[in-house]
Design goal:
single chain; Beta Polymerase, domain 2; 11 strands; elongated; transferase; tRNA binding; HDIG_dom; RNA repair
């Protein structure tokens, strides 16, 4: 029985990066032997065990065979006869197909270390094309390691194109897709994830609404980069540079979907794109069963981001409606995330990445002015029920008028 560290733990150690997750594979052992040593079984699809003292995962070396469509369409076989090399060949990329023992002796049958040094993401074997999830995984690794200069090997990109054209991506579950998408969006270069998916044709299959933005022009006076798809990538890039949470990054990706519906004869203007995009945002949210907080913010940013940009021009009554839409009294954080998404949108323009965004502080001040309107004096005056709501609204509007007058004087 031999135990090896495999996958990301080996890869990141060789790259000089922090090692967070450690996967271990056990060669030469049976399920019975693992149980006899006190390991606890947890794997339903293949033999994975928890160490009796540390609780860390240990998986028996295994082979796999394609038996159906999609990520789950595989039959696994584990036995003491399965070699380390046989276990490693079923992995996705050469840089993930290395193993090391406790003395840091490296087993690298598929030249992962060479590809690490060459900064190449390359598939291990033709079996790569049997698992559609690997298209998303490779794009995610491209986003993670873009800052180190990694690119996808041409032959691997060819296999990803084949998978995209095969219809296999449609067999992915919403849960598995969202897990990869959400992890990729939180990488340092999420825009690379979207670009790689587009380059291999997967974006058209998974998010045609986003793919449709490429080649759609916008007015050069507001958008020097012109292309809506490139703008979306830039907005995502800014959201990562400024360490925004997943909710904001997801909203940044979807905020301009309505522009993909604008008839060509109306280009480069996109009248009412905020409203035409809402159904598209809903469709993408539902397709991937996106968490509620991400869904809600994406819809609100899609609908109101131009309000954010025009904040200093808005009438007090429109400003109040905006604040009410976000329920700033009970959910102040959501409005803060909206402001962040608007700022990322403004920064995601060629040559304007460092321009200040005074709308942010203006909107925060407006929210503060509205929140500071006290309810108690109105209760003491006898207002209650719907009358109290109307009175509160009048007082908040009065406060916003005073705020706007002072702030824009």
């Amino acid at each position: 029985m031999q135990v090896y560290k495999v996958g990301g733990a080996v890869r990141d150690r060789l790259l000089g990066l922090p090692v967070t997750d450690v996967d271990r594979v056990v060669v030469g052992a049976s399920t019975e032997e693992m149980l006899a040593k006190g390991f606890r079984p947890v794997g339903a699809d293949f033999p994975v065990f928890l160490h009796p003292k540390t609780g860390e995962e240990y998986a028996l070396a295994r082979t796999e065979r394609k038996s159906g469509r999609g990520y789950g369409g595989f039959t696994f076989y584990a036995s003491p006869e399965v070699t380390l090399e046989e276990d490693l060949i079923r992995r996705d990329l050469t840089i993930n197909a290395m193993a090391e023992d406790d003395q840091l002796n490296l087993t690298d049958p598929y030249h992962g270390q060479r590809d690490l040094e060459a900064r190449i993401l390359r598939h291990v074997s033709p079996a790569f094309a049997e698992d559609p999830l690997r298209v998303l995984r490779v794009a995610r690794f491209a986003a993670r390691y873009a800052g180190l200069g990694f690119t996808v090997a041409d032959e691997t990109m060819d296999l990803m194109r084949q998978l995209s054209e095969s219809g296999e991506l449609q067999a992915l579950t919403a849960e598995r897709s969202w897990k990869e998408i959400s992890r990729a969006l939180m990488e340092d270069h999420p825009q690379v994830f979207i670009q790689v998916l587009r380059d291999c044709g997967a974006l058209r299959e998974l998010m045609p609404e986003v793919d449709a933005l490429f080649g759609v022009p916008q007015p050069e006076t507001h958008h020097p980069e012109i292309d809506t798809g490139l703008h979306t990538l830039s907005v995502l890039e800014q959201s990562a540079l400024l360490k925004q949470p997943l909710t904001v990054r997801w909203a940044c990706l979807l905020h301009d979907l309505g522009k993909g519906l604008t008839p060509e004869e109306e280009w480069p203007r996109h009248i009412a794109h905020e409203h035409t995009g809402l159904e598209l945002i809903k469709a993408v949210n539902e397709r991937f069963k996106v968490p509620k907080d991400c869904q809600e913010l994406a819809l609100l940013v899609g609908q109101y981001h131009t309000h954010g940009h025009r904040a200093l021009e808005l009438k007090a009554s429109t400003l109040l409606e905006l604040l009410q839409s976000f329920d700033i009294y009970r959910r102040p954080q959501r409005f803060e995330e909206f402001i962040a998404a608007c700022e990322m949108d403004a920064r995601g323009r060629k040559g304007l990445e460092q321009r200040s965004y005074p709308q942010a502080d203006y909107l925060r001040g407006a929210a503060k002015a509205a929140r500071e309107v006290a309810v108690q004096p109105l209760l003491e005056l006898g207002f209650k029920g719907s009358e109290l709501g109307e009175a509160l609204k009048r007082e908040r509007l009065k406060a916003l008028k005073a705020y706007k007058e002072a702030a824009t004087a």
